[in-house]
Amino acid sequence: MSGPAALGVLEGERPVPACERAEVLVSRPLSDRYRLLRFRSPVIAERARAGQFVMLAPVTESGPVLPRPMAIYTRDAAAGVVDIVYGVVGAGTTALSAVAAGETVVVTGPLGRGFAIHDDTERVLLLGRGVGICAMTTVAQDLADTPVRVAAVLSGRHDASIIGADVLRACRADVRRVTDADGTSGVPAVRERLHRAFDVDPPQQILTSGSERLTRLAAQLAARWRATAQVSIEAHMACGLGYCHGCAAGDGDGTREAPLVCRDGPVFRLRT
Amino acid sequence: MTTRIVDAPRGREPATPSRPPADLRVELGGLALANPVMPASGCFGPELADLMPVDVLGAVVTKTVFATARPGNRTHRITEVSHGMLNSVGIPSQGAAEFRRSGLGGYAALGAPVVVSIGGLSTAEYWRVADELAGAGHAALEVNVSCPNLERGGATLDTDPRAMSEVVAGVVARSSTPVLVKLSPQLQTIGDAAKAAADAGASAVTVCNSFPGLAVNPARREPELGNGTGGVSGPAVKPLALRLVWLAAQAVDIPVVGCGGIRSAADVAEFLVAGATAVQVGTATFAQPALMARIVAELPALAARLGVDRLADLIATLTTRPKEQP
Questions:
Q1: Do A65 and B283 touch (CB under 8 A)?
Q2: Where is coiled-coil annotated (chain B) (predicted)?
Q3: Which of A145, B74, B303, B305 is deepest in the core (most CB within 10 A)?
């Protein structure tokens, strides 16, 4: 997404991950483009911090070789379950869509560094597009029972392709939808709308995922409002832990490797 | 009934005596391993200790260490291909001195013998890495001779047996531990390369590194990987690697470490029968991080199923000789 120069590595502890064969409880379409998969993992549900991800692979002899990184959409520590959302785009996700409830998947997680919400933050703005929204829903989960106000702009091709609105509303977030179909998702229109809505009482933190254009907008808005911005980015991965070095977030600086999305991210500080 | 049980002799053998647990130990050119399973370089890190008991492995193998720090290749670095993966990570390295200072300890703490993979873009670089690591406490070195060699126009070192011999002999002279040499699969004559490594003093050869490959994105008219081509690994290459192991094992007297698409105990048996003394597991760990420990746990049952008391008795036992000459 953004070049390495724009990304800063966040501080903070990462919980110890677990690897297990987890029972699939739900596997169904969530919208016209995306599917939801719920699996049982009390350990991951309890440990996962907002913005973390799991590596997930179906248990098949002839299926895909590599696991796929999946943002944690929601987790319920009391019920011991984790939801992820994915689009069926290639062989890996096609194989995943064939896994039925009652079957198992190999899951490793929670992985990576999630979003960091500052102690003095009173208002958070989420800017997400498509499946990228699913990387930020856990932030709203964490803030649901706090005084922090959460506003979200959800962008998609059309109304039916926007996901996460119900989860965010259930977490008391103020949700605005913008779509390509009704012409409201263009960056100038979104920018104008956000200026009007938040210039008087701006958020202290802007979190974004799923769109390079929205990432640039997040940086601009952060500068305007003297806020900080964090971005969750996607990458091809193999190990998810850092040892394979497959997911560098850029091309490095000649001797040093760029941060790894799996180990140092997937959430990075966006330098503004 | 009660009386008979009380009267039963203590410690009596069961009516149908079971075999004692199989002996899993193998000997790798002076390196005694508790069992033949170790990771392939680049497909393992101390991070995996959170997810599996690492001390059950025969050995652990580090990512290839170069003399100086290097950032690795452009992104994208990995992609899935048919029954395998293609990678061109480009081996980022912190450099040998820094690895010795801050990297090696993480492997040494895992409780299994540590094999340090070393690389170089020139003969002198390999030797420098070996010098930097002298006396560092590792159990063995594995020389990655599949690196592009800048003195030979970017060709990999093992395409020139004389050049490879020079590198290996120099590393052996600088090292007090066994030296393994990991060969690339693109050689016309893997047997000659294995012989050259053995003659230069190698204790064992690892066969083989990933296979050169290309993935194409037709919409963009571009390779999928930032570096263009990469190395194919995973189940797709298993029969290719098995053949090379079989050829190499016939060409040399030193042990062969088999590597290529292994993802089960049954796969381990195939490599041992074809001539390998030990095996490396690579790509399969990505989808199943605890796989190597599971394979080790399954080895006794595997030995029993194949009717051997010592797993090493499987090595090079292929009876119907394929017609191809090494």
A1: yes
A2: none
A3: B303
